[in-house]
From TrEMBL:
Assigned keywords, A-Z: Signal
Designated name of the protein: DOMON domain-containing protein
SUPFAM superfamilies in the record: CBD9-like
Any Pfam family the entry gives: DOMON
InterPro entries tied to this protein: DOH_DOMON (IPR045266), DOMON_domain (IPR005018)
Organism: Sphaerochaeta halotolerans
């Protein structure tokens, strides 16, 4: 009986969605408004002079991300790689009169528009010398493997092609 209970518990643990094991779940879903509210994201990491927050939605269907950087130019988060190459890059800027957010595919040291669109929600906002990119993607895009690799960066111009001023990478490890 004890062995059966252990086998059932282990089976249950392995049947949980992988993202449920990766991301902390927020007590309430973050509001995708381009600003980092108090206690909105249960996990916030400092990456050089940027702050990256992430959370899983309460229904476990979506992943929420927010990146705040000290710039009045573009900001980006690349998902799936610690380098530009191979990353699905969400990049954007707020030029006051227009806000631009694009999904790009990293190729070598560059990127181009992606044919794969996965954004559920997104918002970019510049205020007080900082630009904040916030977005939601489906869990199903990233729920396989042992970790989720990310690259974050920002530039000082309102465009999608100028070189970054600063970048960093981060890996979110899955629980074993």
């Amino acid at each position: 009986m004890k062995k059966l209970s252990i086998v059932l518990i282990i089976s249950l643990l392995f049947s949980l969605p992988l993202a449920a094991q990766i991301f902390p779940t927020s007590s309430s879903n973050p509001v995708v408004d381009g600003s980092l509210g108090n206690n909105e994201y249960p996990e916030i990491v400092q990456l050089k002079d940027m702050r990256l927050g992430y959370a899983q939605s309460r229904d476990s269907r979506n992943l929420h991300f927010i990146l705040e950087a000290p710039t009045t130019g573009w900001v980006s988060v690349g998902l799936g790689s610690n380098r530009m190459h191979g990353a699905h890059i969400i990049i954007g800027y707020d030029a006051i009169t227009s806000q631009v957010i694009s999904e790009e595919t990293g190729r070598g040291h560059g990127h181009s528009p992606s044919s794969e669109k996965m954004l559920v929600q997104s918002k970019i906002k510049e205020t007080g010398g900082k630009t904040t990119l916030e977005f939601t993607v489906p869990v199903s895009q990233f729920d396989s493997g042992r970790n989720l690799r990310l690259i974050v960066a920002y530039g000082n111009r309102d465009n999608l092609r100028s070189k970054h001023v600063t970048y960093d990478s981060h890996t979110i490890n899955f629980l074993k």
